[in-house]
Amino acid sequence: MIWDHDDDKPREECGIVGVFNHPEASLLVALGLHALQHRGQEACGITTYDGEKFHNERHMGLVGESFGGDLTSRLPGSAAIGHNRYSTAGKPAMRNIQPIFADLANTGFALAHNGNLTNAVALRKELINKGAIFQSTMDTEVVLQLVARSGRRLMRERVMEALQAVEGGYAFVGLTNKKLIGARDPVGLRPLVLGKIGQGWVLASETCALDMIGAEFIREIENGEVVIISEDGVESYRAFPERPESPCLFEYVYFARPDSVVQGRSVYQVRRRMGHQLARENPADVDVIVPVPDSGVPAALGFSEQSGVPFQLGIIRSHYVGRTFIEPTQLGRQKSISKKHSPNRSVLEGKRVLLVDDSIVRGNTSKKIVQMVRDAGAKEVHLRSASPPIVNPDFYGIDMPTKGELLASNNSLEQMRNFLNVETLGFLSVDGLYASIGVKRDMSMPQFSDHCFTGCYPTRLVDQMQEEGGKDRQLSLLD
Ligand SMILES: O=P(O)(O)OC[C@H]1O[C@H](OP(=O)(O)OP(=O)(O)O)[C@H](O)[C@@H]1O
Ligand SMILES: NC(=O)CC[C@H](N)C(=O)O
Ligand SMILES: [Mg+2]
Fold first, then answer.
1. Are residue 160 and residue 275 in the same domain, yes or no?
2. Most CB atoms closer than 10 Å: which of 236, 316, 325, 472?
3. What pTM did the predictor assign?
4. How do residues 365-410 score in pLDDT, each as one tens digit?
5. Is 452 a catalytic residue?
6. CATH number at residue 133
7. Where does a domain end: 246, 275, 295?
8. Calpha distance 378→348 (Å, rounded)
9. Are residues 58 and 136 in the same domain?
10. Where does Mg(2+) bind (predicted)?
11. How many domains would you assign to the chain?
12. Which residues of 85-118 are buried (b: 16+ CB within 10 A; e: fewer)?
């Protein structure tokens, strides 16, 4: 394991995978992480257990670059967990690569987390006051510390006790010398699915990871559920009183891969329907529909189907630049956006072009792309977002923590239209987004966490409330 405490340069929704009872567990985890690369591009790590020892490798960078070669010799064992990181709490740095690990009295415990905890700062302070020494600056580590300090005997009791103390969004996979553990937060903000491969079990953020390794989808882990996978099979426990689930809508809009199935719905088909609905709500008098690749493609296709206007690839995407929104710095995001998209003049020149993207967050992508399309000779440029205006920050695993950086939070529609320099601008409505998923929004208890669009947060925001009190939020001297 590499521990470089001097390397804290800011280089930079995470993806998680766990495999139990398979002779090539690390290889399967690496393949699963590869399928989940779109959820985090900053760093990746795998921890295995071979019956005697834990093995761990953690790298900055992508899965393909980090986990090639003879993986089962480097990371032997029939049980493994892995993580792709997109940082939301704790800077990108070697110390902040997951899985994180602790030696407990009778076993090691490795943990990987997708999501973000909304009381991690408060808990961290409490734990430090009690003598805890933190090895990272991530929110995730409070769970490791709480499990390590629990007075309970059984591992599942320790884990559930820790989960009852934390708040926010999470899907976890954990590994001990006997068990693979999976858990989702009380409302199921972040996703986690269970699959089967031969005699073995798989946990993964999305079904596309199961498909990649040839595992059969069994079911989603439910909101508030803890699963313990051991030689005895899968046991299910409830860490919280039952309540309705409220998964994050942004999984449908942007995060999940289009070939994944979420709550029994194809993400691709939901995005296509978002395009149909957008065309009904916000039609445009144009010659051609052009998607903003990649995540805007299915909605643009849907818009074209609904409106009858031809769909054309007017923007070509470089396959060597990843997702830009999930890069950790504004400079990095802007640099990547410039390299990522190129205009296809043969489609754009002299045309009235409608650009369709899945979302407009900070406006970085739209601003650049509109100018690029104009420079390529488009006569008019119109823009549609297949999600509603994003006016509120997210604290559950999407890195948009302040209102100040959200374009729609600070500008009227007309101001945005001017800023983006488009002839017309339109967004999908909240009800339209729900309709695309096939649900009518329940005003008193929304079926999805739609806080980015509506301000309805499904949990308390302990750290954020304290911050509003004017306190300086420095997570650690290491950060
Ligand atoms: O308004 P912004 O702050 O620019 O963020 C929104 C953009 O970021 C995402 O694309 P990204 O490049 O991350 O991934 P993609 O290739 O999957 O579309 C999203 O699809 C929008 O295009
Ligand atoms: N995007 C995520 O899921 C991040 C997980 C965790 N909060 C971290 O920063 O590493
Ligand atoms: Mg995009």
1. no
2. 325
3. 0.92
4. 999 999 999 999 999 999 999 999 999 988 887 877 688 889 999 9
5. no
6. 3.60.20.10
7. 246
8. 5
9. yes
10. 295, 357-358
11. 2
12. bbbbbbbbbbbbbbbbbbebeeebbbbbbbbbbb
